[in-house]
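tool=predict chain=A
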Amino acid sequence: MSEPSTNSPGVFARLRPPAALNYLIMAGVGLLLYAFVMFGQGNDIGAILAIVLAVPGILARWTGSPVLIFLLTIYLKLDPSFVSIVGFFGGNRRFELQTGPGIGFFIEDVFLAAGLLAYSIGHFRLLTLIHQSMPEDPTTRRDIDPKNPPRRPVRLVGSEELQKTLLVASVCVIVGQIIWWTIVFVESMGRPNATQFSGGTSRLLIVVWIGGSLLVLLSAALVYLRGYRMTRTEAALSLRDDFFHENRRETDRLQRWRKWYKERVAVRRRSGQ
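tool=predict ok
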């Protein structure tokens, strides 16, 4: 028999604690900075669409809102104010995306990245505090109260968590700008003048190559670290599991033949042969 559900406070009531309010201010400031930069670049419609997606995303638990805003930002950097789409429906069947040189330091892009990152961090931290922190466990035997899902307790949010979060976000923005300078430097030094790739395509290839190389090195380091920290029993269990997956077909075939032989012997014994 399930326990009666208790009344849960509303979304606005769960936003009142200082921990949730701090992340709400962080997300709001980031979104406001993002809107100012987009307004300054002539993307008024894009800024309004981002706000329309962001506010219900926090209040109604839309986990895809930051992703949609990120994709919208990428498109608006190539097609400001949806000029190509308007021209397409107006009779011009050609999309003319603006790639631009993209070389140098642009303070607007730094503010845009900082605002978008601050909003994204605040969005997901707020979802864990006011909506649900962990996905539902399908193997649980007790009835789940939809009005009281597992949330992150507000008392567990330390006073220094917001400062650390802002520090990590700032470091990410600085590292992103350094990576951008590196890509532009590699492109200007290594890409030949007579090439069939455009500037944007070459930068994309450089990003994919550098990112893939870093992921391969990181994956190898994590695999080595995991194997180094294993005990003898854990290593034996891991090797036995790998052996089973590599020899599963041969093992299944042997077991089928063994089962067939046992059934045949049992039939002969019952028949007296």
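The chain has three domains: 11-135+146-190, 192-229, 233-271. The two ends are 58 Å apart (CA to CA).
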